[in-house]
Design goal:
Length: 210
């Protein structure tokens, strides 16, 4: 009813897993990127007219949304590395950086773009032009939220190992978990969701019919 994807589908024999999405964010999320715009700009594969992929700037924005709106950060550093590789590859294409800025505004994704470029550049030295960083920063939060976000993401974007954690890491991960839900749900729905999760009501087995 509210989410942007079906539960993962697993082939009964091959065990392949297929995720089917009809949007890149839930309908209840605060940001509203248009699925119709993403699909309209999709590019057919070279050897097939049946299949298409997102155009390059949309791939990058999707990657940023996946990372910075996700409540499961167990692979956050890997996801940031994926983003770094995308930006290094596509950043050599003439006009890419300006197109990325325009597309982020068009799809209501200026905030994820800010975080994606900021932390890829800071953590992995991704070669983002300084003027692009500055322009993307206009879509970011105020200085206080930015300072807090830097401290939270500095811990989330580390290897998930005790040697890379400190005393504040569990609190940072919990704060980002709550933030992800806050970004995807209005307050009443969020309260319902967290109550169900806290009481584990979704794990209660259905009563067998007589």
């Amino acid at each position: 009813e509210w989410m942007h994807e079906l539960p993962p589908l697993r082939h009964i024999q091959r065990q392949n897993v297929l995720d089917v999405h009809h949007a890149i964010l839930p309908q209840t999320a605060r940001l509203k990127p248009s699925s119709s715009k993403l699909l309209a700009a999709a590019q057919p594969l070279a050897n097939s007219q049946r299949f298409a992929v997102l155009k390059p700037v949309d791939m990058v924005l999707h990657s940023m949304v996946h990372l910075f709106h996700n409540d499961d950060l167990s692979h956050a550093l890997r996801d940031l590395s994926d983003l770094d590789l995308l930006l290094r590859h596509l950043g050599r294409v003439p006009g890419f950086w300006s197109d990325l800025l325009v597309r982020a505004r068009e799809l209501d994704l200026a905030r994820p773009l800010h975080y994606g470029l900021r932390y890829a550049h800071a953590r992995l030295a991704t070669p983002v032009p300084l003027e692009t960083l500055a322009a993307a920063g206009e879509g970011g939060p105020g200085w206080l939220t930015t300072a807090l976000s830097d401290r939270l993401w500095a811990r989330a974007l580390r290897p998930q190992h005790a040697s890379a954690s400190d005393a504040w890491t569990p609190l940072a991960m919990f704060a980002l978990y709550v933030r992800a839900h806050w970004l995807r749900m209005p307050p009443a729905l969020l309260l319902r969701h967290l109550t169900v999760k806290a009481l584990r009501l979704h794990e209660v087995p259905a009563t067998a019919s007589p």
